[in-house]
Specification:
single chain; 5-stranded mixed sheet; 4-stranded antiparallel sheet; 6 helices; 32% helix
Length: 173
């Protein structure tokens, strides 16, 4: 698991703070994966060959902020923490864990003064960013342009880190 986390550009200390090792069995096969808890007590599960969940729901890390950073998946959220180690606590962090859960997050997003998006640089990510901008107007700040040459924030992190660092903070405000 440590090699997988490091291959995604995340320091082990960050992973230990936000993730758990999940052991599970399917049939007669035993597996060990990285787990990231969601708001209903289920787990988003990842390893080098599997991506799934025990029960699908959004994940929220609450720092009692009036600003929320929104990510498609938890490795993008962890990438933001990695890139902003000294300032991430200034924001609530929301991992959709699937863009299909965006409608379930609307009520939660309504209470924030600032909604900062770190979605994927693909058609679906742009559609959701546009939809949220239509719903919430000036409260929405799409930051995907800060890593526009990359698929997502985690790819930005791993590419830059793999070239010996040289990445800059991808800041929310």
């Amino acid at each position: 698991m440590i090699n997988y986390i490091e291959s995604r550009g995340i320091d082990i200390g960050i992973a230990k703070k936000f993730c758990r090792q999940i052991e599970y069995t399917v049939g007669n096969a035993h597996y060990s994966s990285i787990g990231f808890e969601n708001i209903i007590g289920g787990w988003e599960i990842r390893d080098k060959s599997f991506k799934g969940a025990t029960v699908k729901a959004i994940s929220v890390i609450n720092h009692s902020s009036s600003s929320v950073c929104v990510f498609e998946g938890f490795f993008d959220l962890l990438s933001f923490v990695q890139l902003n180690i000294d300032s991430f606590v200034n924001y609530d962090l929301l991992s959709l864990n699937s863009l299909s859960l965006i409608k379930k997050s609307v009520t939660l997003l309504e209470r924030y003064q600032n909604i900062i998006l770190f979605l994927d640089n693909d058609e679906r990510g742009r559609e959701v960013a546009y939809s949220l901008s239509q719903s919430f107007g000036a409260k929405v700040d799409d930051r995907s342009n800060m890593y526009s040459s990359f698929k997502d924030l985690n790819e930005y992190l791993t590419t830059k880190k793999g070239k010996g660092g040289g990445y800059s903070e991808i800041v929310a405000m």
